[in-house]
Each structure stands twice: as structure tokens, then as C-alpha cells.
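We close this part of the discussion by returning to an individual protein. The sequence in question and its C-alpha cells are set out directly beneath this paragraph:
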Amino acid sequence: MPSLSHVCLGALALELRPGAQASRIALDRAQAAQLADGIARDLAALVPDAATFDLAVLAAHYDPVELLRPDWPLHAALDALAQRAPRVMPPPPHAGEGWGGGAARILAFGAHASVLPDPVPAPEADYAQGTMRLLPFALRGDPADPATGSRIAMLASSMEEVLLERGMAGAATALFAQDAFGAPIEHARYLTIHDLAALMAMQYEHAGLASLWPLLETALLAPEHEAWLDAPPEPLARYADGEVRIGLLDAESWRAGGFAPKSTGDDARKLELAFERYEARQRQFAAVLAAHGVAAMFVHCAAGHDARASITSSWA
């Protein structure tokens, strides 16, 4: 996966009315260009320095788990498309004077005959029912320019500060997106990828999955590091080297290792039910990790052996 140090990653978040679905997943190329022009106007008004970078927009909407995956594969695919785009572009019809005075490009990528351009993956049907849908965009500097990294870092900082406080999309952009996608939209706002990660962390906390988030956050933001989930009665798990390994315990090892809730005491029936919940929790964690593109595997931890040491040694 190529480095994205020359790119500021973001998304237009469309919050749909509860129970509603968009009638279209992706826009054609002409509509994509119109939507990209609206996004350019909005971003230039919110963070003027954004207009000094190329703006690449993917006019298809995805679930948050599809954006929040290691190495940012959707944004990497968008960057690959931008890399192939010609340097000389016709002026956008609606962006006004604004986008870099012509020096920076607005690149819109839509579908042709309902198929998105390679290498962009189509939105996954398994995650199409959510009420928050995200259109990826990227602000892109010249990867050959040594100053690009620092400029992108400054832009990302400004974007996070501004969009968090007042990142609502303009009314014209939101209405166009609503009509073009056939989606009843309650709110439309701009987010950086870090804003999106913070929002997902809050949602997982509300869903009772806060204990899993540090592993996901490490996989996304610091993949070279490691992280443990070692907080009984939660499942035992470790992230390292791009994957999570979860301790697979039998009932005896589970109890001996201190993973049984203290409230069960020695009640056999309570212990049985608690162990069933523990195993269900393991499966839930593995499913959430898989949704985010993080490989998860179970490591058998034999009775009488330290489960933490068994997980660690499984990498050897």
C-alpha cells in the first residue's frame, strides 16, 4: 500500500433519516463533477488553504467501517485515480475563481454504466443499511515536493480544528447530494479521517464496545505498535503486526485465568451462562474487527498454561 503522507483524508458525511435508504449508491461522471464543485466551494470557504491542493472526490457512499480500515484502502484507491488524472484539466464549471486560481485541480470520479473506476471497490452490500453514509475525498499535494508533507500536516490540523466546530456542508451541496443520490438527508457535514475515527469511538462506546476500540485505533493510526485487551471479564486479545489474536480458552482455563465475573461465585449454572457470554463476546469482537479489515484469529490456550504467554508466543 503506497504512503499517503502527501494527502489529507476526509469525507462528506450524509446522515439519512432513520430507516431511510439512498436509491443510488454512486453518481455518474457528470453528476460527480457537479458534486465535487459544490464540495470545493464549501471547503474553500471553510479552510481557504485547502484550495491550494488538488481535490479528489469519489461520488459514491460507503459505511464508516469501509473507510476506517488499515492503510485507508478507499482513500488509497482514490489517490491512485488522482495520480493517473492528466495534469491539464478544464476549469470546473461552478467552482468560481476559487480553486487555486486554476493551479490546483478538482478531480471527480463517478460511475460509468453503474461501475466505479478501477481500483475503487464498490460499496459492500453487507454494510449498506446504516444511516450514516460517507463520500471519500482527498486533498492532495505533489508527492515529489519535499515541502508537501509539512504543508499537508498543517492543512490537516486546520481542517480538524475548523470542521469539528463548523463543518456543515453548504445548503446547495446538501440538496444536490439529496436529489442525486435519492437520499432523504437530515444532516450533511465534512469530516477528516481522524474526526471520523473519534466519532466511531463514541459510537462503539455507546454500543458497549469501548474496550475493543484501543486495538482498532492502533491498527488504524499506529499499526507498527502493539496493543492488548487484558481487562477481565472481557476476552483476552493482542494486536501486533497487522492482526489481532484472541485467546481461545476452555471453561476450566477461562475460570482459572481470572476471566469469570466475580459475581458468579461457585454457582455452576451462573458460570456456564457467563462462559457462553464470554464466547459470544469473542465472536462479536472478531466480527467487528473483520468489518474494519483487521485480521483476527483465535489462539488455543491450553489448560494450565498462561493465556497471555500463549498469545504472545503464537507470533514466533
